[in-house]
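Q: Could you fold this chain for me?
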Amino acid sequence: MLLQISSGQGPVECSIGVEKLCKSLLKEFNGSRIVSVNEDYSGNGYKSAMMEFPEDVSSLEGTVLWVWKSTIRPGHQRKNWYIDVHVIKEAEEVGEFDLEDCEITTMHCGGKGGQHVNKVETGVRIVHKPTGLVVTCTEERSQVQNKQKAIRRLQSLLASKQSEYDAYALNGAWQKHNEIERGNPIRKYDGEKFKRVK
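A: Sure. Below is the predicted structure, expressed as structure tokens.
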């Protein structure tokens, strides 16, 4: 499972909190890892980070509150810093191409090619049942050639569809980057040592 941990539009203290939360979760969950980070422009902490977990950690989704007197800005009155934790819905897997997932039918072809084209079913139509994608090929004179070309077209469409799913998932995660809800935190941490408050 993937989590995005973000400081949103928060100041540098929130970015420091993101880094501390990442390190805390690495210790808490065996097998977890940081996939990528977007470092804060100040050089302190992470504006956002993506983490991967081998288990379901959807219970972490929400807002984390860190109560800390800033050492970056000692005169600052604010002590409450908010961090967003968001589950990234993994891109829908189109999966590997398998002819068993396809319904292949043949058809008569129209157009040039003489009587042979119209009498023999050389055209091929393939329906990819898991996605509903349909391709047809009638350009070639032989059914074998049309089938091969139709399969290549379908593979290209499936690759394109996977790219769309990936982009959609990533875009959704980025939109959440700016949507931190304050109040009702799912977790609370305290102090410089980032100690969890039960």
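A (continued): The radius of gyration is 26 Å.
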